[in-house]
Amino acid sequence: MAVSVRIPAPLRKLTGGLGDVTVDAGNVATLVDKLEAAYPGLKARLCDDSGQIRPFVNIYVNDEDIRFLKGPDTPVNDGDSVSIVPAIAGG
Fold first, then answer.
1. What is the pLDDT of residue 81?
2. What is the C-alpha to C-alpha distance for residues 7 and 19, in angstroms, rounded to an integer?
3. What gap in Å lies between CA 42 and CA 59, rounded to an integer?
4. Of 11, 24, 62, 90, which sits 20 to 30 A from 78 (CA to CA)?
5. Where in the chain are the domains?
6. Measured between alpha carbons, how far is residue 80 from residues 28, 33, 36, 66, 83 in Å?
7. Distance CA 1, CA 16 (A)
8. Fold exhibited by the domain 2-86
9. Residue 78: what pLDDT?
């Protein structure tokens, strides 16, 4: 299933400058693994050593935060849009 993934500017150095990539995946966890296969080093920026999505990384499927869905098991379907958004802190 072809899914469009929006890559944030800080991670584009790993995708050769691409801001949007397409991945075939059935859920978010597989999508992250496929991103890693295509763009080595990306998973380490998104996930911790145990493979869990880092707390400061927000992933949205069709504008829905996966934390309020099924987390990494959130399904993705052909034509879905996935956005990776690093949290921004400040005061």
1. 97
2. 5
3. 14
4. 11
5. 2-86
6. 11, 17, 19, 13, 10
7. 23
8. Ubiquitin-like (UB roll) (3.10.20)
9. 96
